């Protein structure tokens, strides 16, 4: 008897044939069905969110402090560097401005970055039991949203000596958070779907997010940009959303209506495109894990 | 349909008859229409982003698949309330895939699969357990995944713990459980929830001898309560005892569907013949 050992195991990559899709009016009901599924599976989502937060913060005494440390350090360094670099031009509360942009951006970056792997790490679950797939990106979003809430509150309180003042504009914060969350959810859906099919996407995304961070007025004010390139900001979909936070938290003023409208439009587009991308591929996800 | 008579009979003799819920029960809990699950396999190459981009830029058609493989093809299956169905077939016939389609884990690539009601899959033990959580919390989490509210599940917690005899470990994180305890807990949850559709994939190795007897009795109990039970097994004696309808699969197709004894006899004869040949 001969035994044959082959080091190169034939690697078979399976994925199912395209399903013939014809448009059916019932498809328009998909979001409604999705919402009822989310309601049904809400205990699962809540459980996963609470569990993750508990693991993240329970084990280390300073747990929550570590998530604050990074923005604090960045704000200190950048505040120092930039107020020297742009002597006098930065305005009074530049540190506050940095905070107002960096904390929401941290949320964008971590939610989208984490969502890239959200189906892949839950392979065990997806292949064993039926769960609507949208649960996983949604869970990532909610976890990061909770952290964002804590961070915003804690840092805002810490910045009171530096000029953070509670103002009426703070009442606009929930609306801004909803728009930010919607904007991020759409992008997360796209990234999580794409990355499940093409595993190399995750790396591209982190590079792309870094570039986007610098292209958005977060660590600088738009006024610092030379006039001839400032109009490019119109094409940056993240800017209106971030500007909401800068106006509310750093400026202490109600953002103007054009900003609100643009942010709302961008958030809606993001959710729409993201959901359509996700939904069109949802059935194939389980075969690509 | 060859099995329609069987269904009629079990309608009347099923232990938990559907009387009083006629509106829901007029629709069969499981309805597969022309369901197929096909895979293409590309050997030696993965479908990467690079390749997708090149295909797009160079306007190349998708590369021809080396082989196409149908895990299920054109499966038509209606299972009415009260039926207990045993699925038999050789290895790779598509039994487990069919069960996964019924559990809604695999969406079919063609055809329509309608599954109505709460489905409890006893396909893999401990699906959806979280090792950081305590036994009790896992009961609640698992129940949520099966579609039960926290309140409904809280009522079931004592029952599950009593059955498994894990009362004193209820607050211990699951990662400290022995594998036997783990299996018992998984089994108890899936059988405590009283599902409409119960799917079983010969997974009854659930612990020591004492527990196995308990488990068998309980399976029978749940089978009596569930509207539909689908069992995949190689244990023909058990199937004859538990089921009233037999479905034989071969290479993803249903080749025989009828009363369980007839299906099994025909299957055994078929296996013997191919051995002799």
Q: What attributes does this structure have?
A:
A: about 290 residues; mainly alpha; globular; B: about 280 residues; alpha/beta; Rossmann fold; three-stranded antiparallel sheet; 10 helices; about 25% strand
Written account of the structure:
With 289 residues, chain A is mainly alpha-helical. Chain A has one domain (33-288). Chain A has helices at residues 30-40, 42-58, 63-85, 94-115, 118-121, 123-126, 135-158, 173-197, 201-215, 227-230, 238-251, 257-285, and one strand spanning 13-16. Chain A is globular, with a radius of gyration of 22 Å. The model of chain A is unreliable at 1-18 (pLDDT under 50). Chain B has 277 residues and is an alpha/beta fold. In chain B, strands 5-6-7-3-8-9 form a six-stranded mixed sheet, sandwiched between helices. Chain B has helices at 4-13, 22-25, 49-57, 95-102, 135-145, 150-164, 179-192, 209-225, 236-242, 260-276; strands spanning 30-42, 67-79, 84-88, 110-115, 119-122, 197-201, 228-232, 245-250, 253-259. Chain B has one domain (4-117, 196-276): 3-Layer(aba) Sandwich (Rossmann fold). Mean pLDDT of chain B is 78; it is low at 1-24. The radius of gyration of chain B is 21 Å and the shape is globular. Chain A binds chain B through residues 10-17, 19-20, 40-41, 43-44, 47, 51, 55, 124-131, 197-201, 204, 283, 286-287, and chain B through 37-50, 52, 68-69, 103-107, 109-110, 119, 121, 123-124, 127-128, 130, 132-133, 137, 140-141, 144-145, 147, 149-150. Strand 1 (13-16) of chain A pairs antiparallel with strand 1 (30-42) of chain B, so a sheet runs across the interface.
């Amino acid at each position: 008897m001969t035994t044959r050992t082959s080091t190169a195991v034939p690697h078979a990559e399976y994925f199912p044939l395209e399903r013939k899709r014809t448009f059916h009016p019932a498809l328009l009901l998909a979001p409604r069905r999705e919402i009822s599924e989310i309601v049904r599976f809400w205990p699962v989502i809540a459980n996963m969110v609470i569990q993750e937060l508990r693991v993240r913060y329970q084990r280390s005494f300073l747990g929550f402090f570590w998530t604050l440390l990074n923005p604090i350090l960045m704000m200190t360094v950048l505040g120092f560097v930039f107020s020297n670099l742009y002597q006098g031009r930065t305005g009074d509360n530049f540190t506050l401005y940095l905070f107002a942009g960096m904390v929401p951006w941290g949320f964008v970056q971590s939610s989208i970055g984490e969502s890239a792997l959200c189906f892949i790490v839950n392979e065990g679950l997806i292949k064993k039991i039926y769960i609507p797939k949208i649960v996983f990106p949604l869970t990532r979003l909610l976890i990061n949203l909770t952290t964002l809430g804590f961070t915003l509150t804690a840092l805002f309180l810490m910045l009171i000596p530096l000029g953070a003042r509670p103002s009426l504009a703070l009442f606009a914060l929930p609306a801004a958070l909803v728009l930010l969350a919607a904007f991020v959810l759409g992008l997360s859906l796209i990234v999580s779907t794409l990355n499940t099919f093409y595993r190399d996407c995750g790396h591209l995304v982190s590079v792309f997010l870094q570039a986007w961070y610098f292209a958005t007025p977060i660590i600088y004010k738009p006024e610092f940009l030379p006039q001839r390139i400032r109009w490019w900001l119109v094409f940056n979909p993240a800017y209106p959303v971030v500007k909401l936070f800068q106006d509310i938290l750093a400026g202490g003023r109600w953002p103007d209506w054009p900003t609100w409208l643009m942010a709302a439009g961008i958030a809606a587009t993001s959710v729409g495109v993201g959901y359509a991308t996700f939904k069109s591929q949802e059935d194939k996800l389980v075969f690509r894990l | 349909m060859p099995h329609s008579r069987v269904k009629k009979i079990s309608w009347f003799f099923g232990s938990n008859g559907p009387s009083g819920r006629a509106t829901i029960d007029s629709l069969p809990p499981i309805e597969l229409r022309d369901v197929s699950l096909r895979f293409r396999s590309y050997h030696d190459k993965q479908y990467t982003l690079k390749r997708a981009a090149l295909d797009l830029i160079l306007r190349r058609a998708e590369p021809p698949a080396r082989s196409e493989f149908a895990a299920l093809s054109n499966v038509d299956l209606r299972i009415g309330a009260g039926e207990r169905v045993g699925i038999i077939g050789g290895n790779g016939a598509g039994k487990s895939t069919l069960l996964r389609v019924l559990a809604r884990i695999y969406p079919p690539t063609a055809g329509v699969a309608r599954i109505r009601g709460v489905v409890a899959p006893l396909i893999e033990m401990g699906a959806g357990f979280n090792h950081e959580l305590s036994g009790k919390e896992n009961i609640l989490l698992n129940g949520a995944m099966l579609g039960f509210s926290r309140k409904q599940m809280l009522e079931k917690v004592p029952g599950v713990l009593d059955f498994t005899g894990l009362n004193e470990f209820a607050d211990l994180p699951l990662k400290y459980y022995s594998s036997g305890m783990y299996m018992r807990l998984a089994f108890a949850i899936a059988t405590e929830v009283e599902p409409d559709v119960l799917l079983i994939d010969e997974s009854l190795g659930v612990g020591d001898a004492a527990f196995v007897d308990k488990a068998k009795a309980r399976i029978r109990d749940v089978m009596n309560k569930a509207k539909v039970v689908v069992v995949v097994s190689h244990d023909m004696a058990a199937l004859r005892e538990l089921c009233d309808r037999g479905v034989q699969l071969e290479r993803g197709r249903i080749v025989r569907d009828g009363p369980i004894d007839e299906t099994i006899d025909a299957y055994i004869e078929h296996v013997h013949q191919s051995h002799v040949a």
